[in-house]
Design a protein that fits this description.
Blueprint lengths: L1 E6 L8 H10 L4 E4 L29 H10 L5 E4 L2 E2 L5 H14 L4 E6 L4 H6 L7 H17 L3 E4 L4 E5 L13 E4 L3 H10 L2 E3 L5 H15 L6 E5 L3 H10 L3 E6 L4 H15 L4
Parallel strand pairs: 1-2, 1-11, 2-3, 3-5, 4-5, 5-8, 8-9, 10-11
Antiparallel strand pairs: 6-7
Amino acid sequence: MKFGVSTFLTDEGIGPATLGPALEERGFDALFLAEHTHIPVSRETPYPGGGDLPRMYYRTLDPFVALGAAAAATRSLLLGTGIALVIQRDPIITAKEVATLDLISGGRAVFGVGAGWNREEMRNHGTQPRNRGRLMDERIRAIIELWTHEEAEFHGEFVDFAPVICRPKPVQRPHPPIYVGGGSERTFARVAEYGSAWMPSGVPPKELGAQIDRMKEVAGADTPVAVYAAPHDREALDTYAELGVERVLLYLPTRAEDETLRTLDKYIEATAAYR
């Protein structure tokens, strides 16, 4: 298995230009960053993890700016979003941001996507929660058109533009990998349509096998799995290895630099037997 980390980078924890090299030095191959543009003061939507919304949600850095800083300080680390909230993003700007990250990193961008959960946050971006799945799919299709055609155009329910030139184009061909988050039947259909891998999050390891089986029935037997926000205990890692998970993105708590580096050293010990 390959090992990376998934985390929330904030203005209170370790910075991306420090974290990136620290991961490479310790043999981790990927950094995936969460995204929240803002958090509405009105807290109507329950936090999926239960209880109060953790502090880091209110303070997340922009993932593409942060990944750009990490790109400049690293040589081989994969740089991913986990997840980019496509339902809150203009597709033309997002296509340019991902392609720019891919260019400046020498082809190391990974576009992790999902439909999100915070309904108040969506509404502030003009997104109706009931439409978010269709909106996400359409925006991703438009982004792919912008990446892969010199004169791209798209005409849909939510996205509509006549032929445009949008550069830079991604270094990776035909475009950067798209890791699809979620766990529904529609998620698996998205993986089949435009995904490069399935990226489950919050699924207990013992329940993951049945979901992987179903995903592969829909998306294909060779579809890779990258577990987001994964635990690092031996039982979980044994299960991931048995299930043939390709990449484990260990959850890295948002902490100051010294504590973060100590945590990464613990993760080296926990994963040594699986590398």
